[in-house]
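Quick one, T. Sequence first:
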Amino acid sequence: MKRRIVISGPRVHGVGYRALVFDLALRQGLDKLLVYNAESEGVQQVVILVEGEEDQVEGFLRSLEERRPAGAEVESMSVEEYVGGVPPIERTLLAFQAEQWALGIPILLEVAENTRLIPEIAENTRLILGKLDRLDDIARGIEELGSRMEERVSRLEEELHSLKEELRRSGVIS
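Structure tokens:
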């Protein structure tokens, strides 16, 4: 039995649909499968060609209707008979693996490059923390200076008040 399945929706790419399809096909013992991402009129699609015994294909279709990857947004799933050839699942898995490596290798290289920056970032962080400690010391010094200034101003105000009182008593000012 051969079937062509098209899963369509605004978000069926980049959510793990093809990995789920492989898992479901392998669980049903299917040996022939092709799965790929496509787009039609701005709508994302996952296209699946499958071949196997009737009970395997039917079980696969039931599983496919019941399960979706997290984050997938599906509008429809169409199933139709298919008459063309379907490649062995191993070939499709190898192509999928190669595609994933092609996506992953640049990310791994970027991570490796960023990892080389860690010692420099750690040193800069240490220097910044040292400067922040120095700023804390300066801020404490300013606070202490402010307290001492407040005390001096308060004493000067008291002395000024006392002098004014003395000058009033002696009649120098009224």
